[in-house]
Amino acid sequence: MLKLTFLGTSSGVPTVRRNVTALAVHTSLNRDWWLVDCGEATQHQLQRIALSVHDLVGICITHIHGDHCYGLPGLLASAAMTGRKKPLILVAPAGVKAWLDATLQHTELFLTFDLVHVDLAAQAAVHRADGLLIERFPLSHRVPSYAFRFTFEHTRWKVDHDALRARGVPSGPAWGLLQQGQDVPLADGSTLAAADFRTLHRKRAVAVVGGDNDTPALLAAACQGADVLVHEATYTEATLQKVGPGPQHSSAQRVAQFAEQAGLPTLVLTHFSPRYDNREGMAELAAEARRHYTGQLLLANDLQTYDL
Amino acid sequence: MLKLTFLGTSSGVPTVRRNVTALAVHTSLNRDWWLVDCGEATQHQLQRIALSVHDLVGICITHIHGDHCYGLPGLLASAAMTGRKKPLILVAPAGVKAWLDATLQHTELFLTFDLVHVDLAAQAAVHRADGLLIERFPLSHRVPSYAFRFTFEHTRWKVDHDALRARGVPSGPAWGLLQQGQDVPLADGSTLAAADFRTLHRKRAVAVVGGDNDTPALLAAACQGADVLVHEATYTEATLQKVGPGPQHSSAQRVAQFAEQAGLPTLVLTHFSPRYDNREGMAELAAEARRHYTGQLLLANDLQTYDL
């Protein structure tokens, strides 16, 4: 039911094959989608896939660095120019909101829709709607950075077709009425009680999407019961040692070790330093992660959708 | 000697084939180049051609609308991340500078080079250097908008090879010394005077690059002696009539009529509404312009270089 479509997987600067960070979080249930981070040219990437900015419910920005938010002005301007009216939720640090306000002011950008800002620092549960809860978890980076935990829940009444057939009720309108919770009188004078033939089925999918972060273990609580963790793996451990702790990023090894310990079924690595944007580089990151993680390991590629 | 490389030729929003506005102005003389306007993802387009952000001398922004400047933060950030130290000239409206200042502040962007702002409103000659003069000319648009006139001048001493051969001086070191202006004593005791054998050759190329503008005739003075005019042709005349004067753009017809009257040898149309981004649309714009202009007509395409 959960789908992740990567719009950008490069750290800092774009490469020819990888744009800077952006990720679409959506489901097979409807056309709604959420965007986590919005690097420059995210709107350009959207033109190459089937997601429309008019179905975008909200945008979550993990932190204020440019490679995670410089695509916002253009995306919002294009949404306005193509006639968006529906309000758009923006879960973001106050600095991002202040920057957008400055952008609106200085570049005479007029939005045709409400931009509803939710301050990332103010609360842990940043969005709550029918079937979706989004919570944020603080990370460790050069600037305040957060992960988002998306919990999608879908419930549906199902009628027991076998039981109904056994009771002598073939496929027909009665099935639909029972599914809606209505008792159904039969021709023989008896009644089929909905409660006897329908049961509630729940589907749940939990995705944790991290921002820039040098301490994956901070996500221990967020990852409890999660189906997938999407986390930056900017470097290999050897490069991280060489670069030093200054940039406050993670290595493939550190993320893999954490994911193994947390028992995560699926780990998606992203936000790769441009130095790895070749066959050998990606193989090196993958091999390092595989040495420490036994679950399903994916290294994200631009414009690829992962059905989970 | 003059080269124009279009990085974006779409108006308002990008399309799959055309990015929003940006144009590289350069010459065959050296690697220096100037950028006129910097729509979102201009740095992405640069990755697909041979121009490097490290050879970029300056950026001229015609006006503050987002499709002409939203690529600035990312371009500057990437120049800094890849180690640029050389100062960068920014000829731009004060609003663009204020927006960049807000960007630096809110998104913790630290530049590794000086950004030297030249206020577009303050003076007509916005840049003067050895061999290059850039002047700006006010246009008519919803916000203050300008055209830039680039005058490149290249002078070079040339020695008269035929005259030297006739004088009995074959190709050799003497030719180089004469070219540098040194008189050359000969074995027979006589002297070759540089003044007798070298002459100054001048090359001059003038390009006028307009911003958004509904009144091409405002460029009459700018276009005197110009080799080429690059001007927006957002619509056909029929569409412009339908849209009304509000957006304050030009039609292919209006620009072509002006270029014919001004006697411009070459006219390059750009900044096309996305509705024309197909074979029929471009053919329509071209046919309309050709009905009114007899010079060399070009309709700009992304990533194409025009040698003039």
UniProtKB/TrEMBL annotation, chains A, B:
<dbReference type="Pfam" id="PF23023">
    <property type="entry name" value="Anti-Pycsar_Apyc1"/>
</dbReference>
<feature type="binding site">
    <location>
        <position position="65"/>
    </location>
    <ligand>
        <name>Zn(2+) 1</name>
    </ligand>
</feature>
<feature type="binding site">
    <location>
        <position position="67"/>
    </location>
    <ligand>
        <name>Zn(2+) 2</name>
    </ligand>
</feature>
<feature type="binding site">
    <location>
        <position position="212"/>
    </location>
    <ligand>
        <name>Zn(2+) 2</name>
    </ligand>
</feature>
<dbReference type="InterPro" id="IPR036866">
    <property type="entry name" value="RibonucZ/Hydroxyglut_hydro"/>
</dbReference>
<keyword id="KW-0819">tRNA processing</keyword>
<protein>
    <recommendedName>
        <fullName>Ribonuclease Z</fullName>
        <ecNumber>3.1.26.11</ecNumber>
    </recommendedName>
</protein>
<comment type="subunit">
    <text>Homodimer.</text>
</comment>
<comment type="function">
    <text>Zinc phosphodiesterase, which displays some tRNA 3'-processing endonuclease activity. Probably involved in tRNA maturation, by removing a 3'-trailer from precursor tRNA.</text>
</comment>
<keyword id="KW-0378">Hydrolase</keyword>
<feature type="binding site">
    <location>
        <position position="212"/>
    </location>
    <ligand>
        <name>Zn(2+) 1</name>
    </ligand>
</feature>
<dbReference type="GO" id="GO:0042781">
    <property type="term" value="F:3'-tRNA processing endoribonuclease activity"/>
</dbReference>
<keyword id="KW-0255">Endonuclease</keyword>
<keyword id="KW-0862">Zinc</keyword>
<dbReference type="GO" id="GO:0008270">
    <property type="term" value="F:zinc ion binding"/>
</dbReference>
<feature type="binding site">
    <location>
        <position position="63"/>
    </location>
    <ligand>
        <name>Zn(2+) 1</name>
    </ligand>
</feature>
<comment type="similarity">
    <text>Belongs to the RNase Z family.</text>
</comment>
<feature type="binding site">
    <location>
        <position position="271"/>
    </location>
    <ligand>
        <name>Zn(2+) 2</name>
    </ligand>
</feature>
<dbReference type="InterPro" id="IPR013471">
    <property type="entry name" value="RNase_Z/BN"/>
</dbReference>
<keyword id="KW-0479">Metal-binding</keyword>
<feature type="binding site">
    <location>
        <position position="68"/>
    </location>
    <ligand>
        <name>Zn(2+) 2</name>
    </ligand>
</feature>
<keyword id="KW-0540">Nuclease</keyword>
<feature type="binding site">
    <location>
        <position position="141"/>
    </location>
    <ligand>
        <name>Zn(2+) 1</name>
    </ligand>
</feature>
<feature type="active site" description="Proton acceptor">
    <location>
        <position position="67"/>
    </location>
</feature>
